[in-house]
Amino acid sequence: MLFGVDIPFELTPRYNIAPTQSTLMIRNEGNKLLAVKARWGFIPSWRKGEKKMLEPINARSESAAASKLFAGALRTQRCVIPASGFYEWQVVTGKRTKRPYHIEPLGADVLALAGLWSPWKPKDAQIIESFTILTCAPNEVMRPIHDRMPVILSLDAIKAWLDPAIDDAATVTAMLRPAPAGSIIAREVSPWVNTPAHDDPACIQPVSRSAPEEPPGLFT
């Protein structure tokens, strides 16, 4: 059980989930919270056929209510993406590569990332549920690393965020604010995580500035 929701399938540890891959999503259906697997990268339900278009992995909380792509979902198709942490990359002056950080919760095991989901049915195929993660201005921990961060919901806010009776855009948007600085910690990790094929504990191993950029050997 997670956030009071039963998980009807086995969760396999993941360390490097990439866009277009599936992960755990919690959403409301008929006033009941469900845990499902969904695709990271928002596909609007009105997309016609296999027409190519952007599939955003993030949505700006400040403009979502005015967006053709996200306005409807903000009112009626909100979700939570549970995560034990997330990555962000810091620009380093004078270097081409960015420095990766793993951001983890303090005082909790799991973060509740605010998201929007959408059901899309391709021709002659099953419905695909997809999602995007909402972002906001950074808090004090994230500000030295990046100018954005995911919206992290408190346990008290999850219930309201997933409540279908709350469908006023202004009320919903007010929930989208930076998490308290004391709720997360950022640790520098190896550039090993920069390769999507690397999905193992080495991705979240903290490193010092003098450490080698990649761990020895290939983890599987």
Structural features:
5-stranded mixed beta barrel, disordered C terminus, 220 residues, 11 strands, 8% helix, single chain, hypothetical protein yedk fold
Can you walk through the features of this model?
By secondary structure, the chain is mainly beta. The protein has one domain: Alpha-Beta Complex (hypothetical protein yedk fold), CATH 3.90.1680.10. Helix content is 8%, strand content 30%. The chain contains 3 helices and 11 strands. It has a 5-stranded mixed barrel with strand order 1-2-8-7-4. It has a 3-stranded antiparallel sheet with strand order 5-6-11, with no helix packed on it. The radius of gyration is 18 Å and the shape is globular. The model is unreliable at 211-220 (pLDDT under 50).
Give the helix/strand class.
mainly beta
Shape: globular
Q: What fraction strand?
A: 25-35%
What is the C-alpha radius of gyration, as a whole number of Å? 18 Å
In short:
By secondary structure, the protein is mostly beta strands. The chain has 3 helices and 11 strands, in the order βββαβββββββααβ.
Describe the SSE topology.
Blueprint: E1 22-29, E2 32-40, E3 58-60, H1 71-76, E4 78-83, E5 86-90, E6 99-105, E7 111-120, E8 128-136, E9 149-150, E10 152-153, H2 155-161, H3 169-173, E11 184-188
Parallel strand pairs: 2-8, 3-8
Antiparallel strand pairs: 1-2, 1-4, 4-7, 5-6, 6-11, 7-8, 7-10, 8-9
